[in-house]
Amino acid sequence: MHRGLGAAASLIVGGSLLVVAAAGTALAQVGRSTGQDASSARPATSVPAPGSAGETQRVAATGTRIEGDGERTRFRLELTRPVVAQIFVLGAPYRVVVDVPDLEFKLPASAGRSGHGLVSAFRYGLFAAGKSRLVIDVTAPVLIENATFVPAHHGIPAHLAFDLVRIDAAKFAALKQSGQQREGTLERPQPRATPPAPKRASARPVIVIDPGHGGPDPGAVAGPDLAEKNVVLAVARQLKAILAASRRYDVHLTRNEDVFVSLEERLRLSRQYGADLFISLHVDALAESDAARSVRGATIYTLSERASDETARRLAEKENASDLLAGLEAQPAAGEDDVRSILVDLIRRETANFSTQFRNLLTDRLKGRVALSREPHRSAAFKVLKQSETPCVLLELGYMSNAEDQARLRTPEWQRQVAQAVALAIDAYFAERLAGNQR
Ligand SMILES: [Zn+2]
User: Fold this and answer.
1) Which of 57, 78, 223, 439 has the most CB atoms around its CB within 10 Å?
2) DSSP, residue by residue, 21-80
3) In this structure, is the dihedral angle defined by the CA atoms of residues 12, 17, 23 and 29, taken in order, positive or negative?
4) 281 C-alpha vs ligand 1 centroid, how far in Å?
């Protein structure tokens, strides 16, 4: 092997680029992960990455470096040990996805918020069990070259590196056609193993709480350390604890860690659990402007074919883009027709009426406890609300773009207060439903 290049080989597998660490190191890794004795594996001639002493430790990503210009940009991800990485490109919008085994991300909080050269931003996080993902937004169609794993040398930490090279849209399409740099992977994250719902084992109503975003999709962000995905998970956990303590409901979360869950999977979980009520939790943020800073408070959204207003339409567009942000293929735009047929269904099933009933109760219980926005009732075509059997709402807890909201969103006391108000609304809703049934 050549020096330098000897550290890694890259090959094209199934249209994506696979970067394999130096033979010795890679074998040692395989040996460890399968529990075999790796001592026979010839150690890599190059200096092993720092951290290899603590062999049981997770590999950590410790930094990134982006260099170059709008024609060729080199991306480096610094790692404590070599990993096998799969790199591929996606179109509509143009993105580069890097899949690696589960990493511990020790990157600065601001990492990826802005870019350089062809990179406009990037996100990262747990994509599925045992798999982390980096999603790099690029400003133009690109192809990937010179993907290698470079061991630590001369004070430069070990890193995975690759070049993004600008090409035109026609070439991107041609490469995709030829399969040489085929557009992405069609693989969607496997449904996570969920225990079969103890459906109707008890007569208790089933509540599914859906904390939005997760993993490589942080949702709205503010400052160096506040992300929507963490705020909504905290509120969801508080709400679950309150509801579970009442022993009146079976309560499920669509995610209980910082992991990506596709919108499709959230809907599937709602069906699988046999949800009687589905509550999706989010936080909004408006783009920087004087007006944006003054808009605050909670808003409750229900499903509609046509958005109630422009703000609602734009918000639905943003929330519906969650899968794209996490590096999934754009889905064929079934969009509006889909909503229309579900709406017909909803009318028949009265699900929409129940959603509205719950929305009204929720507004009432939030009032006085949590600041409401000026128009707290809005509607739009949110994918996660396309449920024909289950009454559902999407609750935007407030605005990251507002200083007062931002300060509250991060405190556990405020999070508990919101959770308590939602729990009161749930109690009222099922009391009314029960009374209705007995009439
Ligand atoms: Zn959201």
Assistant:
1) 78
2) E-HHHHHHHHHHHHT---TTSPPPSSPPPTTTTSTTSPPEEEEEEEEE-SSEEEEEEEES
3) negative
4) 7
Q: In 10 A of CB 260, how many CB atoms? A: 28
Q: What's the start-to-end Cα distance of the chain, in Å?
A: 81
Residue 417: CB partners within 8 Å, gap ≥ 6?
369, 370
DSSP state of 385: G
Measured between alpha carbons, how far is 68 from 79 in angstroms, rounded to an integer? 21
Structural domains in the chain plus CATH codes: 5-178 (2.60.40.3500), 206-438 (3.40.630.40)
Rounded to 10 deg, the angle between the 351-366 and 412-438 helix axes is 130
Closest to 275 (Cα-Cα) out of 386, 196, 389, 381: 389
Coil, strand or helix at 439: coil
How far, in Å, is the centroid of ligand 1 from the Cα of 323? Answer: 12
Ligand 1 midpoint to CA 51 (Å): 37
How many other β-carbons are positioned within 10 Å of the β-carbon of residue 57? Answer: 12
Q: Which helix (H) or strand (E) holds 235?
A: helix 228-246
User: Could you read off the pLDDT of 128-161 as tens digits, one per residue?
Assistant: 999 999 999 999 999 999 999 999 898 889 999 9
Rounded CA-CA distance 38/25 in Å is: 10
What spacing in Å lies between the alpha carbon of 406 and ligand 1's midpoint?
A: 15
User: In which residue are the tokens 């128009």 written?
Assistant: 375
Q: pLDDT tens-digit profile of 223-254?
A: 878 999 999 999 999 999 999 999 999 999 99
Distance 88 CA to ligand 1 centre (A): 26
Contact between residue 246 and residue 423 where contact means Cβ atoms under 8 Å apart:
yes
Measure 212 CA to ligand 1 centroid, in angstroms.
Answer: 5
| Torsion of the alpha carbons at 218, 221, 223 and 225, rounded to the nearest 10 | -30
Measured CA to CA, the distance from residue 59 to residue 21 in angstroms comes to: 13
Question: For 139, which DSSP code?
Answer: S
Closest CA to 400 of 322, 287, 301, 312: 287
Residue range 100-110, pLDDT digits in tens: 999 999 999 88
Half-sphere exposure in the Cβ direction for 63 (13 Å, CA) = 6
Task: Write the CB contacts of 376 (distance below 8 Å, at least 6 apart in sequence).
Answer: 297, 298, 299, 300, 363, 366
CA–CA gap between residue 5 and residue 24 (Å, rounded): 14
